[in-house]
# Entry
Amino acid sequence: MILTVTPNPSLDRTYEVPTLMRGEVLRATSDRMDPGGKGVNVSRAVAAAGRDTLAVLPLGGAPGALVAELLRAEGIAVAAVPVAGQTRSNISVAEPDGALTKINATGPELTAAESETLLDAVRAHSADADWIACCGSLPRGLAPRWYAALVARAHEAGARIALDTSGPPLLAALRERPDVVKPNAEELAAAVGRPLRTIGDAVAAAGDLRALGARTVLASLGADGQLLVTGSGVWFGSAEADAVRSNVGAGDASLAGFLAAGGEGPEALAAAVAHGAAAVRLPGSVMPTPSDLDPAAVTVTADVPLDRVLTEPTP
# Structure
């Protein structure tokens, strides 16, 4: 079972339009509503693969109730922590060429008591978890060390932790030695304080995160692929995405695939790449099922192309 923790979940509405025109009245060609948040998406991808998952998350107001309802409709067990504030609602506008415009709300401010209740809920449900995936930004009211406290408590309970966050919360949590961290290129560059121009730069930055405490780094490099950097070696995985429809949740699908495949080694990296490539071909934040995957299109190698310039170098 994979337990996910989403401190700042959302209700996500996605609209597909022919062209985004500022100041105009637009008619959507399609629209959908999904439970959102990085950990929520990981649970949705795990459930789509037919695996057991439990989503632990703070929920408040009518949007929070709808998030829980939508998750349960997908067969996902929910451990909801009631909060006084209202769960945020986000809007995404997708265009045919893959361009995505997002408006993310701030979300509620959690009290000290709600913060502690959320940690208690994770501890109460962690005994049966193969992995705990802690994902996304922290809401107002939670200090940057909140993830560090969660990692420490989970390790005390004998659980393995995968962390997908950025900025001060990531750097603070590294001191507690999370088992896996999953930054994208921009987050990786910010964590080490220097730009990334090549895949070799990304490998070096991932090594720096390991030196700071991360046991394994799974780094998403967008269209260029993904890196897995561990104490045993470095691997590079890639796959052709012939038609990008929406990249919402693609990184979360990758993490789900990685953990569902065991969470270590090149086989798990191949699963991560396959899930990410499948996710970008789907609308909104739809998570891929096994029938959406194309493992034959995935290449994983230990011969990492260090000198290859990234398609989107970080500033």
In short: The radius of gyration is 18 Å.
